[in-house]
Every structure is written in C-alpha cells, then in structure tokens.
Amino acid sequence: MSIISQIQATTVQSLTALYNQAFTDKDFQVNQTKPEFEGDYTIVLFSLVKSLKQSPDAIGNALGNYLQAQYPQLFTKYNIIKGFLNLTVADSYWVQLLNANHQNIHFGKKESNGQKVMVEYSSPNTNKPLHLGHLRNNFLGWSVSEILKASGYEVIKSAIVNDRGIHICKSMIAWQLFANGATPQSTGIKGDHFVGDYYVKFNDEYKRQVDELMGAGATKADAEKEAPIMKATQQMLLDWEEGKPEVIALWKTMNQWVYDGFAITYQRIGSDFDITYYESNTYLLGKDIVQQGLDKKVFFKKEDGSIWIDLTADGLDEKLVQRKDGTSVYITQDIGLALQKYQQYAINQSIYVIGNEQNYHMKVLQLICQKLGMPNAEGIYHLSYGMVELTTGKMKSREGTVVDADDLVDDMIATSRQHTEALGKVKDFTGAELDELYNILALGAMKFYLLKVDPKKTMVFNPQDSIEFHGFTGPFIQYTHARIKSILRKVEAAINPETSQQQALLLLEKQLLVQLEQYPGIIAQAAREHNPSVIANYAFQLAQIFNSFYAEHSVANAETPQKLQLRLQLAAFTANVLKSSMQLLGIQVPERM
RNA sequence: GGUUCGGUAGCUCAGUUGGAUAGAGCAUCAGCCUUCUAAGCUGAGGGUCAUUGGUUCGAAUCCAAUCCGGAUCACCA
After folding, report:
1. How far is the CA of A362 from the C1' of B55 (A)?
2. What is the Cα–Cα distance from A133 to A353, expressed in whole angstroms?
3. Protein A458 CA to nucleic acid B6 C1', in Å?
4. Which of A367, A408, A518, A561 has the fewest CB atoms found within 10 Å of its own CB?
5. pLDDT at position A398
6. Would the Cβ of A203 be found within 7 angstroms of any atom in strand B?
C-alpha cells in the first residue's frame, strides 16, 4: 500500500474517531509537501472546514495530534501552516521500504490481472521507408505495451501492413519504366528506400506529363486524368484485383524488398510484433458484416446500390461502408479486422496507436461497431498521438523535408561515438562493446526525446535538441545508472539485506526514498493514461535526485558502517528502478559509459 | 462553417480529483573535479499561465465568451 493511501486511510479513521461522523478519502487532499516546508506529505484542511465548522488550525492540531499518537510508527512530527497540515513520515518507515525492495527488480510491477489487450502500432505503407512520424508511433506502441505488461495485462502486439492500393502500383509502374531490371541487390540500396525512390520517380514523371499536357492546351483536371503514367497505374490496380499473374509476381517481389528493408529498421529500433496483418488479406473482410448491418437496419442502401450508415444523430455525417460496385472501403475492412482480432485472441481491449489525423475515422469505427452490437466494440481505444513537426514547419515529402528513420539512427550513432570518444572513459572497450554502447546511447536519446512529451500533443523535433546528451535526456539517465553501477563495482563491502531501522535519514537520502516509493503509482498512472511521458518524467526526476545526493554524500566513504550499508542499498534500489523505468520506455541502460 | 485538440520563461516541455511564493531542461551568466564517472552538481537572471468575465476560502487547472494555431469533415488509405 502506498504511503499516500496509508495517509488517506489513517486520516479517514482519525477524523471519524475525532468528529464522530463518516469521511472518505475524497473529503480532503494529500499532497507531497513543498520543499520549502518541513514534512513529507501534506493534508489540505480547507475542505474540512465547512462540514466541521472549525478553523483549519483547530482541525489540523486535533488531527496531527491524533495521527501522531495513534500511528507512531508512521508519523513522527507535524506542523500546521495556513491550513496545511505537514506530516513527517518516520525514518523507520522509509528504511523498511528500502530493506524490503532494494534488490527487487520487479518493484512496482503488478501480477497478472487475467486481461488480454492487443496493441496495434507501426502500420506502415509499403511504398516508402519509415520516417520520424513512424518512430514516434513505434516507440509509443512498444512502450505502452511494456507499461501494460507491467500493470498485469497480457499484451499482443500487432501491425497492419498497408500493402495494396493505388500508391503501391505507382512504385511498381515507375520501376517497370525506369529501373531496367535494377534491384536492391544490384544497387546495394536498402529495399524500402529502393522502392520509395521509384515512388518519388513516379511523382516526378507524373508531374512532367501533366505539365506537358497542359502545355498542349489541356485543362489541369484533364491532364491529371489523361497522363499516360496514371492511366497505366490505374490499369495495374485493376489487373492486381483480378489477380493477373505477372502483376501479382511483381507486387510480391517489390513488397518483399520493402519487408526486408523494414526488418532491418525494426531490428535496429527494437520494434517487434506477435502478429502482422496484411491489407491484401483483410481488405475483403467486413463484407459479411455489411450484410448483417443491412439485416439489422444499421446500414441502408441508396438507389445506386451503395451502402451507408447514418451517424447524424451522433453529431457526425452519413458514412459510406460499401461502394456501389460492391467493393469495400477503408472503414469496412477495419470493422472486419476488429472482429477478427477479437475472435482470434479473445482480447478484452484493442488499442490502436494511430495519429490524431484519424480521430474522426476511429470515432466512426467504434460507433459502427457499437451499433452493430459487436462484442469488442467497448474495448476499442484509439491512442491518438500528435504529429511531429520540424522547427521549420511540417514534414512534407514533396518538399524533401521528411526526416528518414534510418538516417536519423545513423546520425545518432555517429553523435554517440563523438560524445563518447571526446570523454575517453571507455578506452578499454572492445570494438563490439563500443558498437553496442553507441547503439544503446543513440536509441536511448532518440526514444527518450520522442517519449518524454505527452503523446496527445503535437511536438516539435529540433535536430539540435535531439542530439543533446545533457539535461532532460535519455543519456543523462543512462549515465546516472552507469555511475551507480560503478560505485557498486568498486565498493568492497557487500550489500546486506537488512540495515538498521533506527538510523536517521539525511534530507537527500529521504528524498530519494520518497521518489522511489512513488514508482508503483507512476506505472499505474502511465498505464491508465496510456502515457509513457509519465515514466520519462519520473525517471528523470529520480536521476536528478540521485545526482544531487551523489554530489553531496559519499557512498564508499560513508560516515559510519551503517551509513555505508544504507547508501549501498539506496544506490542499488535507484539503479534497479532507473533500469526498470527505462525498460518501460524501450531503452537499455549501460553498466559503463 | 461544423466537430475536435491545443496556447505556460527566448526555445522545448512538466504542472495529478482546484491548494502554499507556477517548475524542469536547453540557452545566458557566476561557481565546483588530488577523494565513488564533471554525459555531473550548486547558484543567478528570465512569467500579464492567449484575453476578458464568472464560480469560491483559494483558479494555470472548472464554466462562458473572444482571439490565435493544428487536425478533420473523400465512393483515398
């Protein structure tokens, strides 16, 4: 039970005994005491004034006295300032916490709750490589999965690959026209970049043809429709849908190039999936559902044969669910896939990590599922995250301002090498050890940079800040961990499982313990809000406090043998929680750096 | 225009169900390495919490209006 819960419970009990009426923990607030006042936790008394008809001071004195008398093992002191009852929690409480948990690498994590949740994330298109926006998505999806696991859920990670449609055909046509049989192997270009290059070539050629036609007197609309390369692309899409063998063969070949490229990127950034869905397999799902919807009169048919749902009563529009030619649209396959996920895994919850530009779409998806009475409808949750913008504005592929994921990783590794070499602390590392360290630092910096901001918010990617290794960054926390490990390696004395509960704590020792004690609550909050930034902020604060402690007090040369033991435990506990919290962000921490 | 999300220090961001003098990091300035890793620590300056009104013991936080910015409102996915 957290210290705050204990304070709430004991306060409820005390108030009930003192005033002979019923209270709940909603009747007052318990906050951490501000550093400028004496005490650890504070009960705000104002909310009690009205119902008790007494001054805040009177209530505070009665309550403080009672708490201290009844729970001496918990509270040793109190003071009242302007309606705030500041309680000092007994040092023995903190030392006990330390004794019990300093070696527990599972501290803060919950036992299984029997709930199954699917997290769908990443969801790339197969016509271009991953960029910065995908990185935010991937890091979020991974981290939220870890946080949910730590909260007792069984997590299934999934991706839906958008591997069909007109955009794929564009790359294919351009390859046929311009590649002369070139392949990733023959050119040495990573497969996803290779295919992405032909997507760019398509657009260049398309624009050229449109300009040419307009130069010959065509209107813009006609030119766009009549451009030969576009007509060829549309024909190819039809051929694909009919299963024309040579088109299918090319499609499979080019997609495989992309998958090979993605696999490398995913491996580098640490993304993985328990199940991968492909739109080419799922795009026909949902046809049965459309029929069911018609039967249930949730959907209706228009004169031209197209099928719709009327969502005007919910404040939205009419939404198409099937074209007049009987082909399904985006939303339809999503409904089908949502049901398939549920049937396949019996999940209680289905989380979609998708950008906030799809808020409307996801709202419609959930509404339709609800109206159809689908069993999984209530469990759909859209983890909507904001765009990543550049300091110069938005990323635009047409203007070449997209930050490529692979380039970014390469740059970060180079930066890690530079910083590390400049400091010269790991000269005895082997080449392989150095590579591993650069990798850990580079990914740590990137992931932390993208995860430290509330997912809901649009964020700005500043190249200078992103390669920063000081301050509120991943490497700062990694460094703190490495520092602690260095102490633990060097100090001769072994850590005892128990230290005396009688000793008095210094301010910074207690601050560390107060922060450590909050870790379980932080994990719970992050899971509740689907918000890794909660963890990032927490880990940073913990590292900050440790570094202040480190500068002020020595572990190895502690004043007494008891202090040595206490601080060894404190250091180990901090290292464990830093490692654990960074792991929830998908970030490794090195033993040395 | 409808819906929706946002606006906090020069910049990037925290700020819990309303609580004490609104906090970090970066940048700027001044200090701290013969003792556990200076990728660190200590201190200083920097604020009309977009604006106005309301709710109350108390508002960055809740409500209303206004201003500014993003997203979205496809027989694209």
Report:
1. 36
2. 12
3. 8
4. A561
5. 67
6. no
Whole-structure pTM value: 0.96
Q: What is the mean predicted confidence (pLDDT) over A449-465?
A: 93
Label residue A73 exposed, middle or buried (CB < 10 Å: 0-12, 13-18, 19+).
Answer: exposed
Mark residues 350-409 of chain A whose C-beta is closer than 7 A to nucleic acid strand B.
356-361, 386-387, 394
Angle value at C-alpha A459, between A458 and A464, nearest 5 degrees: 165
- Answer whether any strand B atom is within 7 A of the Cβ of A448: no
Q: Is the CB of A82 under 7 A from strand B?
A: yes
**Complex ipTM, two decimals?**
0.96
CA A64 to each of CA A28, A45, A188, A269, A568: distance values in angstroms, whole numbers, following the listed order: 14, 11, 74, 52, 34
Kindly report, residue by residue over A182-241, the tens digit of the pLDDT: 999 999 999 999 999 999 999 999 999 999 999 998 888 888 888 999 999 999 999 998
**Per-residue buried b or exposed e for A101-124, using 16+ beta carbons within 10 Å of the residue's own CB:** bbeeeebbbeeeeeebbbbbbbbb
In order, the DSSP letters of A141-187 are HHHHHHHHHHTT-EEEEEEEEB--SHHHHHHHHHHHHH-TT--HHHH
DSSP run (H or E) holding A33: none
What pLDDT does residue A514 have? 96
Q: Would you tell me how many other CB atoms lie within 10 Å of the CB of residue A428?
A: 7
Sequence-distant (≥ 6) Cβ neighbours of residue A304 within 8 angstroms: A324
List chain B nucleotides near protein: any atom < 7 Å from a Cβ.
2-6, 11-17, 19-21, 24-27, 35-42, 57-58, 70-77
Answer for A162: CB within 7 Å of strand B: yes
Q: What is the 3-state secondary structure (H, E, C) of A254-307?
A: HHHHHHHHHHHHHHHHCCCCCEEEEHHHHCCCCHHHHHHHHHCCCEEECCCCCE
Q: Is the pLDDT of residue A399 over 80?
A: no
Q: Which nucleotide is nearest to A552 (CA to C1')?
A: B41
